[in-house]
Amino acid sequence: MKNFKITMNAPVTIGFAAICFAVLVLNFITAGKSNQLLFMTYRSSLTNPLTYLRLFTHVFGHSGWQHFIGNMGYILLLGPMLEEKYGDRNMIMVIAIVALATGLINFLFFKNIALCGASGVVFAFILLTSFTSFKSGEIPITVILVAVIFLGQQVLEGLFVSNNVSNLSHIIGGIIGSVVGYSLNIRS
Question: 11-187 is classed in which CATH architecture?
Fold first, then answer.
């Protein structure tokens, strides 16, 4: 125990979780105003510079503790392994691509819906994780099973369950995670 020390093993993952936590606390302090202003994306004027910022920052906002804990559980579980395999820059790229893609789709197609949370990033991480044992010319059965189970559930819920969850963000995140996982592994 003398040589025991805490190390920073996943700076992007930990940084992302810390930003999300700070945004959640700020949201409570401001009674939801900070999320509305900066950390949720929705249809707003294209002349407002915050419209473009929110296309990226909505992944930091969460509607409450349950939402935050659910997303951060997966992020903190999967992120360190992904950072170790793919590197910090690639993880930042995945988060940014998911944020922009889900933000743009919500902005363009869902006029009256505000979107916040990291669940698109979670689904990208889930699918990206299934590619960690990928070899060129092969598709691991786990990739297929994860895609069918996680994305299939989102499609079914999107069609048959009326809730406040953005199933489309989950699906988009999963697709991005799959594409990135495939393309990063095909190069190595």
Answer: Up-down Bundle (1.20)
Residues 94 and 176 sit within 8 Å (Cβ to Cβ):
yes
Q: Which of 56, 182, 66, 183 is nearest to 120 (CA)?
A: 56
Phi, psi angle pair for 87, to nearest 5°: 95, 160
Domain boundary assignment for the chain = 11-187
Which token pair is 115? 């979107």
Both tokens assigned to 62? 């969460």
How many residues appear in the chain? 188
pTM score, two decimals? Answer: 0.89
Q: What is the per-residue pLDDT across 98-154, written as a single tens digit (0 to 9) for each?
A: 999 999 999 998 888 899 999 999 999 998 988 877 776 677 787 788 778 877 777
